[in-house]
Write a structure and sequence with these properties.
elongated, disordered C terminus, disordered N terminus, alpha/beta, 21 strands, 14% strand, 23 helices, 46% helix
Length: 779
């Protein structure tokens, strides 16, 4: 029956983030759509300019024209002319037959370049177009060309070599690398070298569509213009070989670029790192030399240049850029005027290529630094706190002087487990305590179990109330409690025999400084049946034994777990009991107590064994409630953040908790994308090093925790796989909590399904140590 002293729940505020109107999410969606409606037209307005060619021809400017033209002939039998007289420049010419002549025309204007010779006409035959190669350097002239840079290390080293020798060169730069290394690109130009276009990301033209190919060329041109007001119409096909890359050749030509070939490929890309590159032999003729300043380890290239350049000079060679081969209109221009489209291209590519890497790099070092410093700090503080706790000798207290303790046990549908919970309490060695069990409208046989137990155990009082939630059930128990100290636990929690005494001893005698508001106990997982529950056991150990013990030494405990805690009843009544406006009523109460000026301490000898969720679904639901509740509590008590009045709690514990929420919310998606793309490129080393570092730090924390409470070293086996469970769980609970806050929904208290699987192992080493430290406290 309903307890006659029961009073209905007191009116309280709405849950934090709750939206009684139900319109918040609609407003957020509407605002997002409004931004999209504004942004899409802006994008539509911006894109045509950004993607437009820097220069346009007179004819055949459709993106699909080059591929259509090439399809009119067998690609494996395209006639080629000019190789006997030149090799430096390449182009595709339309063939026009008029008045018995074979004319070579520009496909993108009405310009007739020249008339084919009789020998060339025979080679051309009936073909609609021809590939023409022409131009070559003067004898004893070398034109060094470098592909694939700029590289932050090797290009600089090459520039140093060229500067020392007074040698100019031509660099065919990848646009992405220009964006990543703008200072190196600027030095190339300022040192007097020439730069050409090597596409944005060194693509295979045949493997991509026409629009994408065009943007690869246009984008590289625009970023060079925006980065250093440099305009270049020179182009080199990635991987070269223009006779087999006619699509790239013709698409570049359509956009107004001139292809620069080479005849001396030193194949430095084909040498293993550290293997010396053979110095080429010279024959007195002019050559365009191909080497690389990016795309791999180029240290051997640099060493080869240090030998090759002096040798060539000694043989009477001079060095030049490719400028002597160029028609005047193709000579790169410095100090050109740029436009908004150039700068938008650079800004967009920078945001895509550079900003995420800078952010990830910053996050990496911030994560490594903060993880290392805070972990070491917490480990040291925890060891100091644990040592002090072990060295402390408690004064002998007569039995009648121990404070009366009221154990408040709120239960809802706990029929499978509550009798075991009560049996553990009955085994307590504490001399003066009562148990107030509050049945919160259970629909199973919980009330009957309680009433039957009360008949056999006079220390147990049973209250019954309509279902009102855990907080109100706890408050009802506190109101009916007779003790000056309130001990709380959950319906599935088993206390060790010494636990109540370990909690209560802190309330005995006078204290210096702040009055004691609460004592946090040590919760252990009692159903280590599978990997998931074993993982939770390790998490509880590292989180409680190290983190909370360290925070306790600093007076900065942010959460006193309601499943194993002692509270000063007077302090609870001053606060009006547990609040109902957050899902983490224990965290809320902990912060509220410290706002009132009460202190909080941790006691690892006060041990409780709890039932952890045994399924992924159960774990995720539980942690979503915890995380959402902790965020609610932090927001509710936000005035404590960075407030020196609250010492390390306001200046360290709460800010770090805030960072642990905000940083993953903002950067976790970016980190995931970067990690996946790095793995896709085969760049796994940095990720592996970071993962190993995190595991090593966690191993240290786990070792300290196991040592402090004499736990089973088998926990160490979970450390290597800890993050495999932790990271998906963290992503789910953080983004789930964000969505709940944005939608303003009220979330009920989630109680995992009880399996009655908790075992309270006997730990002789721990029991002996506790007994040795607390014998004097029996009185």
């Amino acid at each position: 029956m309903i307890d006659p002293a029961y009073s209905p729940p007191r009116p309280r505020g709405a849950p934090v983030f709750f939206d009684p109107s139900g319109k918040r999410w609609r407003r957020i969606v509407s605002s997002f759509l409004a931004l999209v409606l504004i942004g899409v037209p802006s994008l539509v307005w911006i894109l045509p300019g950004v993607t437009a060619p820097v220069r346009t021809g007179q004819l055949n400017q459709e993106p699909g024209y080059p591929r259509q033209l090439l399809s009119t002939q067998d690609l494996e039998s395209i006639p080629q002319i000019g190789a006997e007289t030149g090799f430096a420049l390449d182009r595709i010419a339309l063939v026009e037959r008029k008045d018995g002549k074979v004319l070579l025309k520009d496909p993108f204007s009405n310009t007739v370049w020249r008339e084919a010779t009789a020998a060339e006409s025979e080679v051309i035959g009936a073909s609609p177009y021809v590939m023409e190669t022409y131009g070559k350097p003067a004898d004893r002239t070398l034109m060094l060309t470098f592909d694939d840079g700029p590289d932050p290390q090797y290009t600089r080293d090459i520039l140093d070599v060229l500067a020392a020798e007074g040698v100019p060169a031509t660099f065919f730069s990848v646009g992405d690398n220009v964006v990543k290394n703008p200072d190196v690109f600027k030095r190339m130009i300022n040192d007097g070298h020439m730069v050409g276009n090597h596409t944005m990301s060194h693509i295979d033209f045949w493997a991509n569509g026409d629009s994408y190919n065009r943007q690869q060329i246009i984008g590289a041109d625009r970023v060079m213009r925006a980065a250093e007001n440099y305009a270049s119409r020179l182009f080199r096909i990635p991987q070269g070989n223009p006779e087999n890359n006619t699509l790239a050749l013709l698409q570049a030509q359509q956009l107004g670029y001139l292809h620069i070939n080479m005849d001396m490929d030193l194949r430095d890309w084909d040498y293993a790192p550290g293997k010396p590159i053979k110095t080429p032999e010279l024959d007195g003729k002019g050559h365009i030399v191909l080497v690389h300043d990016g795309g791999g380890d180029r240290s051997a290239t640099i060493e080869m240049l240090k030998t090759f350049i002096p040798q060539a000079k000694a043989q009477g060679y001079t060095f030049s850029t490719v400028q002597p081969l160029l028609p005047s209109e193709f000579i790169p221009q410095r100090n050109v005027s740029t436009n908004v489209n150039d700068h938008l291209t650079l800004a967009t590519i920078t945001a895509y290529l550079v900003t995420p890497n800078v952010v990830i790099s910053w996050l990496f070092w911030f994560g490594v630094g903060s993880l290392t410093l805070l972990s070491l700090l917490y480990v040291v503080l925890a060891l100091i706190g644990n040592s002090r706790q072990k060295r402390r000798r408690w004064a002998a207290i007569p039995e009648q002087d121990w404070p009366l303790v009221s154990v408040v046990l709120p239960v809802f549908n706990e029929e499978p487990v509550v009798s075991k919970t009560l049996a553990a309490l009955q085994e307590s060695d504490y001399p003066r305590f009562e148990v107030v069990a509050v049945n919160d409208g259970s629909t199973d046989g919980t009330l009957n179990v309680l009433n039957e137990y009360a008949k056999k155990w006079p220390q147990l009082r049973v209250l019954d109330q309509p279902n009102s939630g855990k907080s109100e059930a706890s408050n009802n128990g506190v109101l009916h409690a007779k003790g000056e100290v309130i001990v709380t636990l959950d319906g599935d929690t088993l206390f060790e025999s010494q636990t109540i005494r370990m909690l209560a001893r802190h309330f005995c005698g006078a204290r210096n400084g702040k009055p004691l508001g609460a004592v946090a106990g040590h919760i252990k997982v009692g159903n280590r049946r599978n990997v998931l529950t074993a993982w939770q056991s390790l998490e509880y150990l590292s989180g409680i034994c190290v983190t909370r013990m360290a925070e306790g030494l600093l007076g900065a405990i942010a959460i006193v777990p309601g499943a194993c805690a002692a509270w000063h009843r007077e302090a609870l009544l001053r606060l009006g009991g547990y609040s109902t406006d957050t899902l983490a009523e224990d965290a809320d109460l902990t912060l509220s107590l410290q706002q009132l000026g009460y202190s909080i301490v941790q006691d690892n000898d006060a041990v409780a064994w709890t039932e952890a969720p045994m399924t992924i679904k159960g774990l995720f639901r539980q942690r979503l409630r915890w995380t959402n509740g902790n965020i609610q509590s932090m927001y509710k008590h936000r005035s404590m953040l960075f407030n020196p009045r609250y010492g390390a709690l306001g200046m360290l514990s709460m800010p770090y908790a805030l960072i642990s929420v905000l940083v993953p919310l903002i950067f976790m998606p970016v980190t995931l994308v970067v990690a996946v793309s790095s793995l896709a490129r085969g760049e796994w080393q940095a990720i592996a090093v970071f993962a190993a570092f995190v595991a090593a730090i966690h191993m240290i924390i786990s070792a300290v925790a196991v040592f402090m409470v004499r736990e089973d070293p088998i926990h160490f086996l979970l450390v290597p796989v800890y993050r495999i469970i932790y990271e998906p769980l963290r992503a789910y609970v953080l983004f789930g909590s964000l969505m709940l806050a944005l939608k303003g929904r009220a979330v009920g208290w989630y109680k995992p399904e009880r399996t009655n699987s908790v075992l309270m192992p006997r730990n002789p080493m721990a029991a002996t140590a506790i007994a040795a430290r607390t014998d004097a406290a029996h009185g």
